[in-house]
Amino acid sequence: MILESTSVDAAAPSSPGENGNRFTYVWLFWVCRGVALVLGAAAAWVARYTMYPDGVSYLDVGDAFWRGDWHNAINAYWSPLYPLILGLFVRVFRPSIFSEYPLVHAVNFLCYVIALISFDIFLRAFLDERSQSSQAAAANSEIVLPKWAWLLIGYSAFIVSSLLLITISFVSGDMIVAATIYLAAALILKIQRGQGHSGIFALLGFVLGVGYLAKAVMFLMSVPFLAVAAGAQWKRTRRLRPIGISLGLFLATTGPFVLLLSIKAGRPTFGDSGKINYLMNVGTTQFFTPHEPSAKHPVRMLAGLPHAYEYASPIGGSYPLWYDPSYWHEGIQARVNLKRQIRTLVLSLVECAWIAFSPSMGLGLSMAILFLYLIAQSIRECLVRASSHWVLWVPALAGISLYSLVVIEPRYVAGLFCLLWIVGFAGVRLPATVASRRLIIGTALAVAGLTSLVVSWKILEARDEAVFARADIATPVCPEVAEALIARGIHPGDKIAVISPWLFPSRQGAYIARLARLRIVAEARPDEYWAANEETRSAIRAQFAEVGAKAILALDPPKSDLDWIQLGNTNYYLDLDALHR
Q1: What is the mean pLDDT of the chain?
Q2: How far apart are CA 85 and CA 79, in angstroms?
Q3: What's the rounded Cα separation, in Å, for the pair 293 and 299?
Q4: CA atoms within a 13 Å half-sphere pointing along the CA-CB vector of 440
Q5: What is the pLDDT of residue 505?
Q6: Are 219 and 257 in contact (CB under 8 A)?
Q7: Of 73, 232, 330, 437, which sits 20 to 30 A from 480 (CA to CA)?
Q8: How far is it, in rounded angstroms, from Cα 388 to Cα 427?
Q9: Which residues contact 208 (CB under 8 A, 6 or more apart)?
Q10: What is the mean pLDDT of residues 22-28?
Q11: Which residues pair with 495 in a beta bridge?
Q12: Can you give the three-state secondary structure of 50-114, one letter per residue?
């Protein structure tokens, strides 16, 4: 293999001072892996019926890829790798209405396993590099974290990043991105240690390219990874030619998709997700219905109500407004507003603090670092030692800074925070005393115990909050409604209109449409629709019919309206005749 991995035996503690022998180390190694797998599987199971609008779009794009509909598959907002994976599993297993979303979460668990393997490769490379620090500390009558403690803390950092920040429940490619970050970090550590032969540099470029195919932001985030790889290579050999191999493989991996995007857009682009998120998060553009004067394709408003829209063409998908946001936002220019940019940076800083110190996220890891620094002989020396791992923290901070300009969500920066936590613990060095060893033992056990406790609590909480129609039945809402729609004569491919609160993020109209293979082509806000007189409602229904809607799906219509048919035991109702009244 190009990427060499240190064997478990070779990584075992070699001295009694590390409080372990070969068997103990191997046993602990597999326990950490096993706990990570069990917690991940439990998280995937309790989330098996959850869905998000992003997931619906990923599934729709994946279907387009595998049926050869390249025009709809090449999408400037959604990256291709994750939809390709989802589409493959849907095509192979052909899930039923009730099993499609569980299949998606099985795929998410598979991505989690890949991320775990990638992290394992990174941690092994990191521990190889740490062996010199252990020897230097021993020479100064000091100790660093022993390898058994690194296992507990390292896998705790991975579990926090993967199950609390990214989560398996959210349907996105962020887990794949985290896996590529761990692999890239492992490869850079090998380059720093002088193991950077041409295969390692080639693999680095390919891994970063795969990261871009999972999420467009990795096109820019790859720059600091390549830069630190070049810096590490230059420091050892004063040669930069090998980094050209990385750059070449990166461009070869990303180039075909960039070319296809640019051809479709009619301009050079590696994706529009960054621009659109800037418009929506820093600017004031609406997520789904932008109406700026410069918009080339504003969403068409229906006459009669302030917030009623139709979008039957030309974009497909279960929910066209979120299937290709780049179409609806085309022509809108991002303009820098200093006040709003400062506001965004402040909010990003607050979010980073929340990630690091929230009890439901990284509090255990961050407080453990602070505690060990405070009991060390010098906080400054701890920081200096941590800063020596610049090949890890430079790209991590660069990536977080890039996100800070637009928006930070925990799942975006999970892998980067994991690297920073590892770097933070790498700065710890304590006096070689019995008390210090006891404090390290207590801290490592506390981190592992707290991580397991918090993740288990979140899993149980997710189980209790699973979206069901009622507490007394165990049938998930979306599959039940989708099945009832088909039983009422609504067929795959049909168009429907909805009267529902905004579909993102609180309601499930798009999720139902996906399962029944329907297209939502128009919508109206319920508070406005039900408050309108019958003449206005009739006009809205007529406009629904004009764009091809076969029926109207509504959430909790007024009890006085007897024309609505309840779908199963849910609070969703269907009116097949409304469009003809």
Answers
A1: 89
A2: 12
A3: 12
A4: 26
A5: 39
A6: no
A7: 73
A8: 9
A9: 180, 184, 218, 222, 225, 226, 246, 250, 253
A10: 67
A11: 519
A12: CCCHHHHHHHHHHHHHHCCCHHHHCCCCCCCHHHHHHHHHHHHHCCCCCCHHHHHHHHHHHHHHH
List the structure tokens of 160: 């926090």
Give the tens place of pLDDT for each residue, 86-134. 999 999 999 999 999 999 999 999 999 999 999 999 999 999 888 766 6
Give the residues across from 300 on adjacent strands.
310
Cα three-residue angle 50-33-29, rounded to 5 degrees? 165
Whether the model clears a pTM of 0.90, i.e. scores above it, the answer is yes
- Cβ–Cβ under 8 Å, residues 496 and 265: no
Q: Which residues contact 507 (CB under 8 A, 6 or more apart)?
A: 500, 501, 555
Q: What is the DSSP letter of 16?
A: G
Q: What tokens were used for 296?
A: 């080339």
DSSP string, 368-379: HHHHHHHHSS-H
For 272-320, what is each residue's pLDDT tens digit? Answer: 999 999 999 999 888 888 888 899 999 999 999 998 999 999 999 999 9
- The span from the CA of 36 to the CA of 113, in Å, is 9
Under DSSP, the state recorded for 468 is B
d(CA 145, CA 386): 13
Backbone angles phi, psi at 300, to 5 degrees: -80, 125
Pairing mode of beta strands 300-301, 308-310: antiparallel
Q: What is the pLDDT of residue 1?
A: 35
3-state secondary structure of 407: coil
Burial group, residue 221, by CB count within 10 angstroms (0-12, 13-18, 19+): buried
- Those residues whose C-beta lies under 8 Å from the C-beta of residue 258, and which sit 6 or more positions away, are 219, 269, 270
- Measure CA 485 to chain center: 32
Return the ∠ at Cα 151 (arms to 127 and 423), rounded to 5°: 55
Give Cβ neighbours of residue 442 (< 8 Å, ≥ 6 apart): none
Q: CA 154, CA 344: separation in Å to the nearest integer?
A: 31
- Beta strands (DSSP E) in 153-294 are none
Per-residue tokens: 470: 């009622």
Cβ-Cβ contacts under 8 Å for 511 (sequence gap 6 or more): 51, 56, 101, 478
- Judge contact between 553 and 477, C-beta under 8 A: no
- Rg (C-alpha) for the chain, rounded Å, is 26
Tell me which DSSP letter residue 44 carries. H
What are the pLDDT digits (tens) for 333-381? 988 899 999 999 999 999 999 999 999 999 999 999 999 999 999 999 9
β-bridge pairing 572-575 and 565-566 = antiparallel
User: Could you give the residue ranges of the DSSP H alpha helices within 358-474?
Assistant: 363-375, 379-387, 390-404, 414-426, 434-464
Q: d(Cα 332, Cα 480) in Å, to the nearest integer?
A: 40
SS3 label, residue 565: strand
Smallest CA-to-CA distance from 150 within 50, 316, 29, 48 is with: 29
- Return the CATH architecture of domain 477-580: 3-Layer(aba) Sandwich (3.40)
Q: Please, what is the angle between helix 198-214 and helix 218-237, to 10°? A: 160
Cα distance between residue 215 and residue 234, in whole Å: 29
